Structure formats: structure tokens, C-alpha cells
Amino acid sequence: MILGVGIDVVDVDRFARTLERAPGLLERLFTPEERGLRAESTAARFAAKEALAKALGSPGSLSWQDATVVRGEHGRPYWQVRRSVQDRMDLLGVTRLHLSLSHDAGVASAFVIAEG
Length: 116
What we know:
Its main location: cytoplasm. The structure is a single chain. This protein is α+β, with helices and mostly antiparallel strands. Helix content is 37%, strand content 33%. The strands form two sheets. The protein has a three-stranded antiparallel β-sheet with strand order 1-5-4. It has a two-stranded antiparallel ribbon with strand order 2-3. It starts with a strand and ends with a strand.
């Protein structure tokens, strides 16, 4: 059963400029595994984290560091979650997360389905 859905879009150039102006933001928003990617991939991961928060009801207690977008077999993205994100999933009865990322024409997007 679908328990939550989230979607988000990010302007890649605008997001890259924001990270240039505030370099500490990269460490605050992304885990070490997510850093050092091209601007499009970084923006897509930010969109993914926003979409995940929406799918989980946007509680203020989620930490950006508790969800990592990982590339699986054939480049398919999936989540590694811990602490605050896992706690929220457990509370809602979410047992599986689905993630789709895309970037084209200067826009990055992400779609998340929370299943339970």
C-alpha cells in the first residue's frame, strides 16, 4: 500500500550558485558519499531529499544526513536511511522506498513513493 508520495524539482544553475555562495551547505545537506558529483547529480539528490521529506509528511525532525542516495546496479538510485529517517518510516509503517531521479534542460527532479 502507498503511504506517501513526494516530488520535487530544482533549478540546477540556481542550486549550484547557492552552493558556491554558501560552501558549508554542501556538508550540511549531503553525506560524504553524495559530495563531489556534477551539479546536475547534486541538484537531483537535493530534490530527492525534499521529495522524501514530503513522502514522509514533512516532519521537522528529519536530518539531511540520515538519508543517502546511492547508485545501485546499472545506476539505479536507492536510499540508505538511518536514525531520524528510519524512525519516521517505522512510525508510519513504511517498509520500502521507491526513488526516481532525472535531470534535463537545467532542471533536476525526483519522485519518491513510500510503501508499507
